[in-house]
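does this look right to u?? S-adenosyl-L-homocysteine version
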Amino acid sequence: MEPKKNSLYEIEITDMGTDGSGIGHIENGITVFVKDAVIGDIAEILIMKVKKSIAYGRLMRLVKPSPFRVKEACPVAKACGGCQLQSLSYKKQLEFKTKKVRDCLERIGGLSVISANENPGSSETDSVILYDTIGMENPWSYRNKAQFPVSLDKSGKPVTGFYAGRSHRIIPASSCPIQFEGHEEILDTVMRYITESSETIYNEETGTGVVRHILLRKASATGEIMVVLVINGNGLRDEKHLVEMLAPIRGMTSIQLNINKKNTNVILGDEFKILWGQNYITDKIGEISYQISAPSFYQVNPIQTKVLYETALSFAELTGNETVWDLYCGIGTISLFLAQKAKQVYGVEIVPAAVRNAVANAKLNDIQNVRFFTGAAEEVYVREKIPADVVVVDPPRKGLDKKLTATISKMAPKKIVYVSCDPGTLARDLRRFANEGFKVVKA
Ligand code: SAH
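got this back:
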């Protein structure tokens, strides 16, 4: 029997979904999603909607609040679509992530998993050894990039902030506790410019108005800052005035416009216009410097990026004699990290501006044993077929193209290092590699 709409249940929240909803179970194995509930809560819920084996409940009362609950550091944490786990202690967030990876490897990947804590040392096992999620000391003020949408409030005044979850409604905010220090001043300056120069604001429904988004980037190692105003038009009313206001801000290195006249959710258009300074900023990770242009992908947490790349490098176990492919290489970050320890590295990336950065970055660091290709990983790798000892992949959330897993398997590298931002597609792809005879060793 299905649970009825409007019936009350008392449940324990045992998991959380990707949107931050608490997850619990009621009779007949029905899974219930409850917004604003966290792992460990005992909650009274009202069933709002039932769909086959899934139900959605509203949190009516906390019978016993979870011991892992903390007060959110951000005043708009609940309304904003940015952070989903702020009401969970950081330690519990990390445990949640480890569990999430484990569940995916087991359920989607069909792999047997053993925790590194249960298998200390390097005793032989057929299971995937799963390490704990590596957290950071102070998980605040770390993000080096933000994209703020601009809109009009009810009174017609320009506002900026963040989108509410799954919507384009702006939750006004002039500050964000996970953003780099100093972002408030830049944002405030751009908003003052908009008001002073009476710039119009883009309206998604009518396609009219000019200012769409404010994109900020800061290189944490050098302090260099980039500001990009995304506009629906060819220019601003008073570009000189904007430059006069922004250029004196400490670290300002690049002020640009991006032209986006399309009515889409994609933030950036193809065309950029430099108003002041250069078209890139320079950051440093470990010993290597990187030039980053506006359309290029760059990891958003510089402290953890170093941890990530060092982990990838240690998993690759290079001795100096290897040929390595770095697929989905962006501006060549991982490629250049690997090049320090490999004989030859080949990088593949689809965004031409990122490849231009990658080539410049190799030169900037005087690294000669790398070569970059512009194109889709699944096409370039399939075409070039240069054998590799180690293949590193770092795809977007949708994971690897089937053709690519097949080609990598056929080329039979000794090792694959998979850097992933989505444990679900990671597990799917690991299953494909396992089916081709690879052994999944550790995660
Ligand atoms: N390894 C880099 C970039 C990872 S993000 C870093 O750590 O900085 C994934 C990258 O893959 C992005 O730069 C994106 O532009 C690129 N990309 C997306 N689809 C691709 C494809 N089919 N082939 C090659 N690169 C692709």
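The chain has a mean pLDDT of 95. idk if thats expected tbh
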